[in-house]
Amino acid sequence: MKNLSYLLLILVFFACKTEDKNKEKLLETKLKEGLYRADLKIDDSITIPFSFKVKDETHLTILNADEEILVDEITYNKDSVYIKLPVFEGVIKAKIDEQKLIGKFIMPEKGRQMDFNASLNSNRFDSAEEAKRNVEGVWETVFSPGSKEDSYNAKGIFKQNGNKVTGTFRTTTGDYRYLEGIIDGNQLKLSTFDGAHAFLFTGKVSDSLIKGHFYSGAHWKEPFTAKRNLDYELPSADSLTYLKEGYDKIVFSFPDEKGKQISLDDERYRDKVVLVQIMGTWCPNCLDESTYLSDYYKKNKSDNFEIVALAFEYAKTKEKAFKNINRLKDRLKITYPILLAQVGSSSKSEANDKLPMLNHVLSYPTTIFIDKKGKVRKIHTGFNGPATGEKHTEFKTEFEHFVQELINE
């Protein structure tokens, strides 16, 4: 009996040791704190890099120049991590191998995915040479030059410190948000990642010209050229979308999350200044605009001012679309209504059919200013987000002055 008791004690001891080791092993599968470089694979030779910082095992921050995106929906299963990215639908599923992550970045509704890997590394891009060129300043840019269907103009705005470069491209329909990268010799490399949209810009730089390519995920690639032009300006964002001849009002009726049809004839909007936001929960510039509008609405809501948003969603069902809408509202603490204008597609041509009084829906977002008599006074295409610096400040000043003028009438 003594031998049996002794044997049982030994078994219990080693069982406890094994359990302790298993617990230690389980802890090792959590994300380690620190600064990571991640790469999204386009092909065997090209990746889109971005940086993120792990604060603790359930919180990380995506970093793009001055932008910090908090991610707080992180779960674990054995040796794998599941990272639900904020606002947008993107998720990262990866295996944790020592200090590396290997897996996929997935967009479920769009049916897209990219190979993903990450490791502790402070460099967003690797640099082989010191900067031989300086791109600071304004660049008149054409994407897909020579193409009748795909060509469009942009304004590149960059700052450079040593070989580090930040800035963005503004277009008539919005901007490419916070870009960050380097000049490696005479090669420009810029990227951004916001949880759904992964952009990479690469180009060869001379004194007054950049020739390169723009990659959006692994599904889109187009050339661009840019030339120095300090005085270059894009067309006015207030002239691109307008009411067709014979119209002075905008009319619609779309459901809210409770299924109630909402229109501008409702008591809530009668005899008030109303802002109509045409947007989508999948749209990065719409996120920037919604962040600004939500804050402005809270600070300036009065009996004479309202905002209503019309969401054009590519989610395949109404239920999924409203789930995305409510997630956006919760994240940004939006208190004005977001109606479901379209489901199953974010097509602008289909959006035109829903709002036939407009010459076209050129951009998400588009903002329509309506006076107390229900007449459209201005339509603003796109949004100059915080990455555009002075242009963002200028937009906010003009926006606030114009709204106040309408309220005072």
Short account of what is shown:
The chain contains 5 helices and 25 strands. It has 409 residues and is of the alpha+beta class.
Features:
single chain; 409 residues; alpha+beta; Lipocalin; Glutaredoxin; 9-stranded antiparallel beta sheet; 5 helices; 21% helix
How does this model look, in words?
With 409 residues, the protein is of the alpha+beta class. The chain folds into three domains: 34-120, Beta Barrel (Lipocalin); 137-228, Quinohemoprotein amine dehydrogenase alpha subunit, domain 2 (Lipocalin); 254-408, Glutaredoxin, CATH 3.40.30. 21% of the residues lie in helices and 40% in strands. It is built from five helices and 25 strands. The strands form four sheets. It has a nine-stranded antiparallel beta sheet, with no helix packed on it. Strand 7 (91-97) and strand 8 form a beta hairpin. The termini are far apart. 34% of the residues are buried. The model has no long low-confidence stretch (mean pLDDT 93).
State the separation between the terminal residues, measured CA to CA: 98 Å
Number of domains: 3
Strand order of the largest sheet: 4-3-2-1-9-8-7-6-5
Quaternary organization: single chain
Strand content: 35-45%
Counted by DSSP, the helix tally is 5
Give the low-pLDDT segments. Answer: none
Order of helices and strands: HEEEEEEEEEEEEEEEEEEEEEHEHEHEEH
Rg over alpha carbons: 25 Å
CATH architecture of the largest domain: 3-Layer(aba) Sandwich
Q: What percentage of residues falls in helices of 4 or more residues?
A: 10-25%
Kindly report the name of the CATH homologous superfamily of the largest domain: Glutaredoxin
Major pleated sheet:
9 strands, antiparallel
Count the E strands: 25
Class computed from helices, strands and strand pairing: alpha+beta
User: How is the CATH topology of the largest domain named?
Assistant: Glutaredoxin
